[in-house]
Amino acid sequence: MREFVTKRLYKDVLGTCTGRYGYIVAIVAILEIQTGKIIPGYGSAEFQVQYSAILFKPFKNEVLDAVVDTVNKMGFFANAGPLQIFVSNALIPSDMELDMNSNPPSLHSNDQKIEKGTLVRIKIAGTRIDATNIYAIGTIKEDYLGVIE
User: Fold this and answer.
1) What confidence tens digit (pLDDT) does each residue in 60-92 have?
2) pLDDT at position 1, please?
């Protein structure tokens, strides 16, 4: 029974996001599995499980390394683990120009080029948290941010 509850915990919890704690990246240890209670009328049981986990909850002004996913006329989206970050054109240095004719579309300046797959260093400008997801806005308009070479 313990093995089934453990597998179910990993399946149901790992990789999910809670607004309060953030993304559950890894389950480190299962501390306690209490005796199950049968749910009348359903034929199933409910178990209370205590576990410790590694969490990822981004906060304002945190600097993260991310991989660019999409470039469009509004800015670009990048992924830092499970978190998707949007960087608006207003938060990109003014010397970077959008080239929608290139394949894939890219932003470029004299010494940097941002396209799908580029590794960038982003500072979180703000987050919005709801019950099951975290949304982030980032900037690369400060010193030491942008393309990582």
Assistant:
1) 999 999 999 999 999 999 999 999 999 999 999
2) 82
For residues 71, 77, 80, 83, the Cα torsion angle rounded to the nearest 10 degrees is: -160
What type of residue sits at position 48? Q
Q: Can you spell out the DSSP letters for 40-107? A: TTTTEEE--EEEEEEEE---TT-EEEEEEEEEETTEEEEEETTEEEEEEGGGS-TT-EEETTSSS-EE
**Nearest to 31, CA basis, from 51, 47, 11:** 51
Alpha-carbon separation of residue 24 from 32, 56, 95, 104 (angstroms): 18, 7, 38, 33
